[in-house]
Design brief:
It contains eleven helices and eight strands. With 303 residues, the protein is an alpha+beta fold.
Amino acid sequence: MTGVTIGLSAGILLSMAVVLTYVLGWANKKFHVDVDPRVVSVMNALPGANCGGCGYVGCGEYAEAVVLEHETVTKCVVGGQSCSMAVALIMGVEVGETLPYRPIVHCGAHYDDRMGRHEYRGEKRCGAANLVTGVQACTYGCLGFGDCERACQFDAIHVIDGLATVDYQSCVGCGACAEVCPRNIITITPFKSDQVLAVACSNKDKGKDVMAVCKVGCIGCGACARISDVFKIEDNLSTINYDAYTQECTLDVMKACEKCPRKRLVFVGIPSREDQEKARDLEAPDIVEPDFKTTVDDTEWRG
């Protein structure tokens, strides 16, 4: 009796396996969707970071957009120029030289540089602290709770003494840090060279008000603008005209940097070997550049 039961069970299982195999085979043919082989090729050419820096959910979605929707082949910030060239070759298109994109933090104030800073007992996140008034007197500066640091998949930005600081050796320019900054003081900028010049401040208040809340913030004195046409004071804040920044005006630009009383005209990026040798025994400033859009105009609540 036991043998019959076992045999019957085995027979039923075998029959079910045969039926399911047939059904799955039929479904595979019935619902088969042809995949453009170029999608697979583009995916293989991409780094597989799935960082979202291209604006798509992951590398797979970006690959489909490139092949099926004629999306530009230069959006992979992690892969850079070599990746763009490989994808362009697959798609049979030409691509010119692309500039690497990197973040710039438009604030230079560490904890000791900030006045009017009060104890914050809420959630230790910039997004939460930005909704509370009185966290610090400067309503434009870095809050320093590390939302950008947690968002970075490449360990390329860290909060050091209250200030978000980019490690340009590790950064791939994915833009995650800029997306989570509630005060919009991080911009993703095309770097025309390893180092770029920038104004490391976002405060648009008048000079007297800036000095009341920060020891290093730009006071809009205009010293830089008087030395070089590259600089212009807009809304009480020094700005840089990068189109006017040529090799011929480098000397005046450097003079302007030296004359800045608050030392907010700084350079950011990867220092050259020559710069490293010069700065070996010095305290080197930071560094920054283009599309200066660091405002908090989109933020209603500021702490």
